[in-house]
Design brief:
108 residues, 3-stranded antiparallel sheet, mainly beta, single chain
Length: 108
């Protein structure tokens, strides 16, 4: 499979998560404070909650329901109650287009 356009870079708001879906795979897309775009699995591994509804702080995305924060770089939870990581997807930029292949995850 090839990467698919999920949005424009200009559609993203710094330090806010945006939920996107690629071939049925939900992802949380974040433009961090350093201008880097991250895509992680959108479902909290603790409570089946959308992470895109959570809070971005630095390079983490915190689940609003129980407070587990996930690294945007590794997908690993940084605190309890979550203990399983979420996948981290490779983000490609082509002009103003953000492209993601749901089958291409980062090895961390």
């Amino acid at each position: 499979m090839t990467a698919q356009r999920v949005c424009a870079v200009s559609d993203l708001v710094q330090d806010e998560a945006r939920r996107v879906e690629v071939d049925g795979v939900p992802m949380a897309l974040v433009l961090d404070g350093n201008g880097e775009i991250h895509a992680i699995g959108d479902t909290c591994t603790h409570g089946d909650i959308s992470l895109a509804e959570g809070f971005v702080e630095g390079d983490t995305l915190e689940c609003w329901a129980h407070g587990s924060a996930f690294s945007l770089r590794t997908g690993k939870p940084l605190n309890l109650p979550a203990y399983e990581p979420v996948p981290v997807y490779v983000v490609q930029i082509d002009g103003d287009d953000v492209l993601i292949d749901p089958n291409l995850t980062k090895e961390v």
